[in-house]
Write a structure and sequence with these properties.
4 helices; Nuclear Transport Factor 2, Chain: A; about 35% helix; alpha+beta
């Protein structure tokens, strides 16, 4: 008795079958037609992160300014401010004098942060404590809402408006 092959049994030659294509859009050249749609979806999902990046960069700038005050580093504080900002000259003299008065500790809480990747406007609840080098002198505490505007210049943000500038004036210890 002769063995019957499967191809003879079915009546057609046996060919290896390809794995079925997964359900979904038609494929052309091995690529899905849906890919461009996925790219748009990803772009739309990632767009808010770009705004979050400028928000984060703005907060990083504020953090570096407060760190500069705490580190007794007037040039680092002033580096973040646009030299053409109204009141820059006042700050250029006030910050070193303020730092000479003692150790400074700051705490800043953003109240509002609006803008885009080129310009931002922030309102900051800024608390500053000045501990005089003379231990018998009182600790000076300041707290105020600071209105700050910044612009991106090249790769870096620069403060273009700071109000009230008087918040950063040295303390007058002659007045009680």
């Amino acid at each position: 008795m002769r063995a019957i092959g499967l191809s003879e049994f079915v009546g057609r030659p046996l060919r290896p079958r390809r794995a079925p294509s997964p359900p979904g859009p038609a494929r052309r050249n091995g690529r899905s037609k849906r890919l461009p749609h996925l790219a748009w979806v990803l772009l739309l999902l990632l767009a808010p992160l770009a705004r979050a990046d400028s928000h984060t960069e703005a907060l990083d700038l504020i953090a570096s300014m407060t760190a500069a005050l705490s580190d007794d580093d007037a040039p680092a504080f002033l580096k973040e401010i646009d030299k053409s900002m109204p009141g820059y000259d006042r700050l250029e003299h006030a910050i070193p004098e303020l730092l000479e008065q003692g150790a400074i500790a700051c705490s800043v809480q953003p109240l509002t942060d609006e803008g885009d990747d080129a310009k931002r406007a922030l309102e900051l609840d800024w608390y500053m404590e000045i501990r005089n080098v003379d231990e018998t002198a009182p600790i000076i505490r300041r707290r105020e809402v600071i209105h700050l505007r910044m612009e991106k210049r090249g790769k870096h943000w620069r403060v273009t408006s700071l109000d009230p500038i008087s918040f950063f004036d040295p303390h007058d210890f002659t007045h009680k």
